DUF4293 domain-containing protein
Amino acid sequence: MLLALAMLSLLALPLWHKVDGLTHQELTLSAFNFSAVNMPKPTTGAPVWIIGVLALASAAVAVYEIFQFRNRFTQLKLGAVNILLLVATFGAAFYFSNQGEAFLNPKLEGQFQPAFYLPTLGLMLNLLANRFIRRDEQLVRNSYDRLR
């Protein structure tokens, strides 16, 4: 559930921000677009909304995974899919933040906002969930073997 909350909060918070103090231009990357102040809106080669779609997919898989508690093997497979989605979300955010660096005074560096690190938090939470799912499966298997 924490993983889903982290991915949903990524949708509402900015991922990256860059300010040029001399020209007062600002550029902010969110999950669905670039927001520009005092400058034309930048256009990238690929759509930025991919970050938001990947985060939504990751949250949906995490919630669905919770309700598959009767089949731990399915939960593990969904956890593996979620790892791929989280890595793709982080990669897309990093790619578009690098694209944003080129739009506004390349000598200045942009700052990653806390939402940029939420896929990493989600990845750690997902790995912990998979670890405990495997532990439960092992416990059930050992109990079953004792009963035989």
Summary: The first strand starts at residue 16 and ends at 20.
